[in-house]
Amino acid sequence: MALVKISELLKKAQTGDFLIGAFECWNYESAIAIISAAEATKSPVVLFTGGPGVKLLGIRNLVRMMLDLAENAEVKVACHLESVDDIGVLLQAIKYGLKSVIYDGSELLLEENIKNTKNLVSAAHSEGAEVEAQLGSMPFSESGVGYENIDFFKHKTKVEEAQYFISRTGIDVLAPNLGNVHGLYKQKIQNLDLDLANSLAEQFGLPITLHGGTGIPDEIIEEAKKSKISMMYLATSIFENFRICTKLNIDTKSGYGSTSDIAALCRDNLKTYIMGKLNFLGSYKFET
Ligand code: 13P
Prior knowledge:
Blueprint: E1 2-3, H1 6-13, E2 20-24, H2 28-40, E3 45-49, H3 51-57, H4 59-71, E4 76-81, H5 87-95, E5 100-103, H6 110-126, E6 130-135, H7 159-169, E7 173-176, H8 194-204, E8 208-210, H9 218-226, E9 229-234, H10 236-252, H11 258-281
Parallel strand pairs: 1-4, 2-3, 2-9, 3-4, 5-6, 6-7, 8-9
Bound molecules: 1,3-dihydroxyacetonephosphate.
1,3-dihydroxyacetonephosphate (13P) binds next to β9 and α10.
């Protein structure tokens, strides 16, 4: 069991009627909640981190913490770093032992995105690490404000552009925009272009991931499980779960030791939430 490369999880998930879950951690409690939920449901899992974790713990401590937990887990765990603004941080994470990172240059001009991604891929591959890249920018709104009139399909990934991008960069995993967005939003998406996901997977032979898991209706996720998408990312709803739990318990608990009691309660609460998500994604089918 224990620490595996992300491609090992994603390749098998491409053909099964389930999704691998990728959940964001930013501290020890969230990371433990994710791993113990995976163990309790006998599911492989992707433990990923990003800007908030780097800011809180620093890249070295964060990577060491994640790898240590993964190495000692009873299930397969891949550790992954979400795109941060600075490619230098992604390279540092690889230096400290991380075996996969995401680069999001989708806001850049295509040629600049290609140049950065290609350089990162070459450095990562020389250390035995893998690179996921995002193509087709995905707006982010934690609160959903400003999404009222958004055209979800405006930034959808184009097949010809993907072909050009993949052949020039040599990426290992593709995160296309299928009409998905990050964060919470009131005007929820009614569909995702799963045909696009299937044709990208078939044409290029790369694992396909689905970002922006928060707020995607269950019936769409059911369809995504049957598609060639391998994995779904979840972040905003996890932060929200932990924040609400902390707020409730700060209002009711006080005294010496209450801080660690609150942290433990919120860790266990998050574990239960993630167990529900993993069961819904059907990740346990990986081992069958
Ligand atoms: P959400 O914040 O919408 O769950 O998306 C997470 C994500 O895609 C991380 O890249």
